[in-house]
Amino acid sequence: MANHTQLGFQDASSPIMEELVEFHDHALMVALAICSLVLYLLTLMLMEKLSSNTVDAQEVELIWTILPAIVLVLLALPSLQILYMMDEIDEPDLTLKAIGHQWYWTYEYTDFKDLSFDSYMIPVTDLPMGHFRLLEVDHRIVIPMESPIRVIITADDVLHSWAVPTLGVKTDAIPGRLNQTSFITTRPGVFYGQCSEICGANHSYMPIVVESTPLKHFEAWSSLVSS
């Protein structure tokens, strides 16, 4: 859960998010090295007089042509690796369908016969003590921990976006089209997200709450809800 003084990402709760955080740190270090080098060269040029060594130097031109290409490769390779990992969906243990409406979500557990529900934001006037304003819902998504989860996402009216930052998931919900994403939670907990596509007047009132539990607790919950 993010807080108002937080400068970095939320704590990663899935392998994909861990990879995204590491790539972010890697890219920042590359940017820091480039800025430091440019600042050093600018200072050097301002402090020294121009000479033929700085005006006509084929070796320097060759270096500053090849070096950016190497930097781009160092950024592109891990980026492509993460993109392929995010698109890879291998034999999920559970498939969940999320349907966006104005302004609530409908969830269907397609592996169960009759397990679906609507998820509305809890109004501030009804919010229990200690719960998060504009983020808590009346029905949470409950999933088993350390299990591959596939989410099929669509919309019923306008564009929406199903996003949970701590899981590294953000997928558009488009009417008439099915998009899919996947994730694995690495620890138990409650993870919050919101609709990340401007979808109308109450766009900010479409929270997403994912509760990750051990498998036996999920089985007990699914039996209770579907009965």
UniProtKB/TrEMBL annotation:
CDD domains linked: CcO_II_C (cd13912)
Its job: Component of the cytochrome c oxidase, the last enzyme in the mitochondrial electron transport chain which drives oxidative phosphorylation. The respiratory chain contains 3 multisubunit complexes succinate dehydrogenase (complex II, CII), ubiquinol-cytochrome c oxidoreductase (cytochrome b-c1 complex, complex III, CIII) and cytochrome c oxidase (complex IV, CIV), that cooperate to transfer electrons derived from NADH and succinate to molecular oxygen, creating an electrochemical gradient over the inner membrane that drives transmembrane transport and the ATP synthase.
Gene: COX2
Keyword terms of this UniProt record: Copper, Electron transport, Magnesium, Membrane, Metal-binding, Mitochondrion, Mitochondrion inner membrane, Respiratory chain, Translocase, Transmembrane, Transmembrane helix, Transport
Ranges of residues in domain Cytochrome oxidase subunit II copper A binding: 91-224
Protein location: Mitochondrion inner membrane
Listed name of the protein: Cytochrome c oxidase subunit 2
InterPro entries, A to Z: CcO_II, CcO_II-like_C, CcO_II_C, Copper_CuA, Cupredoxin, Cyt_c_oxidase_su2, Cyt_c_oxidase_su2_TM_dom, Cyt_c_oxidase_su2_TM_sf
Chain segments annotated as transmembrane: 27-47, 62-84
Source species: Francolinus pintadeanus
Gene Ontology cellular-component terms listed: mitochondrial inner membrane
Top-level lineage group: Eukaryota
